[in-house]
Amino acid sequence: QVQLVESGGGLVQPGGSLRLSCEASGSDFGIYTMGWYRQAPGKQREWVTTIGSGGNTNYADSVKGRFTISKDKNTNYLQMNSLKPEDTAVYFCNLKVRGVYEYWGQGTQVTVSS
Prior knowledge:
The protein is built from no helices and 11 strands. It has 114 residues and is mainly beta. A hairpin with a 4-residue loop joins β5 and β6. The radius of gyration is 13 Å and the shape is globular.
């Protein structure tokens, strides 16, 4: 059973930075994508960014230029800079394996407020 364990959320002032981590248990996943979604209060969960097993990355327009996703073996990192109040949400790590199997983390709260 694959488990995703997230860390790094918290409270930060506007303009500040946070780094989220997500470690996936398990062995070789083959072809996969890892990424992040977020859900703000009263809103639907939205896609933020993904990184493929080959290292290719994609970003939502709302975070492009401010967020950077990277990976090292089974762990991915989300560096979030120039944070805005509208980035406040619960951030969920996501893993899709071979386009068939999908796994979610438990979520980590990010709050951007002065």
